[in-house]
């Protein structure tokens, strides 16, 4: 039913509010991300509407005057979609739809839509479909008026509660069916994971678009799809990687995002199991992104949600080639030296203070510091392996001891 939503919303407007909890700077950051999400889903943002308010209006989210501005703009520019940064209540959705007379989406909806477009395998399709139905269930009443309006009044006297109830039942049945299907898939995947034997498992985790798949391709010589859009990866890829003579399993999986819809986290259980069962996490960060610290926060939050926040973790700061230092001019005595002006060196020091030597700065694109990366991963995986199989110790010597031999081998190839 909602495998792929139609992408007719080329022209869109974004709407967000500045509240006591959410400063103007934060809102702009969030709207930048929302615009990127819109672009990924196939839309183009014509204008952003923002409003300062104590708290969002329970009926129309933004104020009535503001919504009239939006309505006029939408009408004049033939805009098909209004996208809100926050999740709207079913009632708000219904009221706003009535006023604006166009498609209303919120962040969750947009993310679900992108996921639906990206889902390739039966597993991820089922996961997305389940999340979509769970999102839909409390909103059915609102949807119904939508249909009613489209079809016009004749022969469509207001839908009685019974019709909405029937719809609800259909959706609930569908949900339990999908859950059963996922249970079967979960079991199969569990067996598959079990069959992978005793190899150490390493998982790439991180915010969406930070370069996880690119890094996977560099170290495993695989060809995982990577592109400059959000959620390029939905389906998990597992590759056996050998660094020097040490084999381990590397998993590339779905990226995280701020306010990841809970329906998605829940239904992506089998995908996230790869993370949950990993022995080592490589937390990839895009250090060239102005909000990378917020991204780290969101990722840690999601890891905590899936009870994977206490695993051995290496922080990998990627895209150092694109990092731009915002230097303060020497004669500028007013601007305060804050994190916003940190150099790469300062970031390195800051993170080493927090994480010891489990911190790397690389560029997967330019292959910068990849040797250091390989060495660190080798040593950490080796440590985990030896802890598990103490008698296997001799098989995997220190990294340096075998460097030359292997380099020669590689040259021969
Ligand atoms: N400048 C620069 N760009 C990079 C680097 N690594 C990856 N990229 C680019 O960043 C974009 C996203 O890369 P992906 O590998 O798809 O990122 P991902 O983390 O797998 O993203 P999702 O699967 O969407 O979560 C692509 O356009 C890459 O070319 C890097 O070291 N430097
Ligand atoms: Mg990816």
Question: Outline of this structure?
Answer:
This protein is an alpha/beta fold. The protein contains 14 helices and ten strands.
CATH architecture of the largest domain: 3-Layer(aba) Sandwich
Helix content: 40-55%
Low-pLDDT runs of 5+ residues are 144-159, 403-413
What would you give as the CATH superfamily of the largest domain? P-loop containing nucleotide triphosphate hydrolases
Number of domains: 2
* Main sheet properties: 6 strands, mixed
What is the average of the pLDDT values?
84
Could you state the order of secondary-structure elements as H and E?
Answer: EHEHEHEHHHHEHEEHHEHEHEHH
- Structural category: alpha/beta
Report strand order across the widest sheet: 6-7-5-8-9-10
N-to-C CA distance:
51 Å
Instruction: Name the assembly state.
Output: single chain
CATH T-level topology of the largest domain: Rossmann fold
Rg, rounded, reads 25 Å
Write down the overall geometry: globular
Strand tally: 10
The distinct ligands, each listed once, are:
guanosine-5'-triphosphate, magnesium ion
- Classify the beta-strand content into a percent band: 5-15%
Protein name: GTPase HflX
Main location: cytoplasm
Family: Belongs to the TRAFAC class OBG-HflX-like GTPase superfamily. HflX GTPase family.
Organism: Gillisia mitskevichiae
Observed structural traits:
413 residues; alpha/beta; Rossmann fold; 2 domains; 6-stranded mixed sheet; 4-stranded parallel sheet; 47% helix; disordered C terminus; binds guanosine-5'-triphosphate; binds magnesium ion; GTP-binding; G_HFLX_dom; GTPase activity; nucleotide-binding
